[in-house]
Amino acid sequence: MSNQYKIETKCIQSGWQPKKGEPRVLPIYQSTTFKYDTTDEMGKLFDLEEEGYFYTRLQNPTNDAVAEKIADLEGGVAAVLTSSGQAANFYAVFNICEAGDHIVCAAAVYGGTFNLFGVTMKKLGIDCTFVDPDAPEEEIAKAFRPNTKVLFAETIANPALVVLDIEKFARIAHSHQVPLIVDNTFATPVNCRPFEWGADIVTHSTTKYMDGHAMQVGGAIVDSGNFDWEAYGEKYHGLTVPDESYHGVVYTKKFGKKAYITKATVQLMRDLGSIPAPMNCFLLNVGLETLPLRVERHCYNAQKVAEFLNAHEKVAHVNYAGLPGDKYHELAQKYMPNGTCGVISFELKGGRQEAIKFMDGLKMAAIVTHVADARTSVLHPASHTHRQMNDQQLAEAGVSPGMIRLSVGIENVDDIIADLSQALELV
After folding, report:
1. What does the alpha-carbon distance between residue 370 and residue 389 come to, in Å, rounded to a whole number?
2. pLDDT averaged over the chain?
3. How far apart are CA 108 and CA 152, in angstroms?
4. Distance (Å, rounded) from C-alpha 246 to C-alpha 267?
5. For residue 51, is pLDDT > 60?
6. Crossing angle for the helix pair 278-289 and 291-310, nearest 10 degrees?
7. pLDDT at 388 over 80
8. CA nearest 180: which of 106, 234, 240?
9. Is residue 202 within 8 Å of residue 181, measured between CB atoms?
10. Around 374, how many Cα atoms within 13 Å sit in the side-chain half-sphere?
11. Residue 393: pLDDT above 90?
């Protein structure tokens, strides 16, 4: 897609480019396999000698069109879609890490990511050190080891709403010769494009704003193509030395800037298989077409709701970078001048018990695990998404026992505020 187009146009036009007589709307290639005429043709695909489709676990035309669109939105060279955001974060890191390696991760991240890196990946022999994203550079640098392969963070942390200083994290990562991977789920490429600030790889839970309607679970990994794997070939030998499972192919030599995404596709998808269904990718594509419109409304509504809550006598404090008094207001103005996201976190003066009473009193806003879709929803992180964490881990993740995560939808903002208001009367 031409880079002259703005993001609103790319959300509609990128990815699927029909030829004469082909469907205008992206088709669903609901097939596991693809036919070839000769044994040799198929063999060349398995040897990575030619491009083409042969089995949907590796690639599918519907999935690839949507991946291409997301890569275009982020300004990357290539992308791969996964069956969930969790799979995207796992693959993004596991693609360049193995047993004996180490990663550094911001402590203020989604609870599922915290468990993935802090518990499950340890079982694979990959250690993780969590750092305070607001700490000075020299403090964060102390967490690095000779075997550190990745620095990971979220543009807007879920649910603490910490706004990442992307340039700072990029400097730290690159001074230690590792890539910066940023989960950009909450901001979306409409409000923030981390590659423009030095990030190397971006991940998404496409389940959230990109889909926007809570219809499919999915993830995406996008590579900027900017990190020089060969410069640190000994460290990233999975990309720079022959892969014996593909007759000795060297990904960086054969695929250049697309080496990282190609390896994730042909190796990790081949062996671990966390693919999205073509039908899910079709639904995701429909959501992407209205992403800029929805993000604008989410941000408008969230700003109004944050201002209402901030002025309410029963509310102890509100976390939303759109508020001038917020700790992250300045960073948000730098990295996301058009708005951050539709998610707010706040705490009532009565703490955990009052939070539960308030949530149970809501009529329109639903208590659901989900976040970031068209409908207003609410969740209590300490009881739900971060339930596995102890009090110290909760504190490190920026989650207090009474915190409420409110995902402001695209309904009329007066109706949203009215629902919140009547529930606050019950507290």
Report:
1. 19
2. 95
3. 11
4. 9
5. yes
6. 70
7. no
8. 106
9. yes
10. 13
11. no
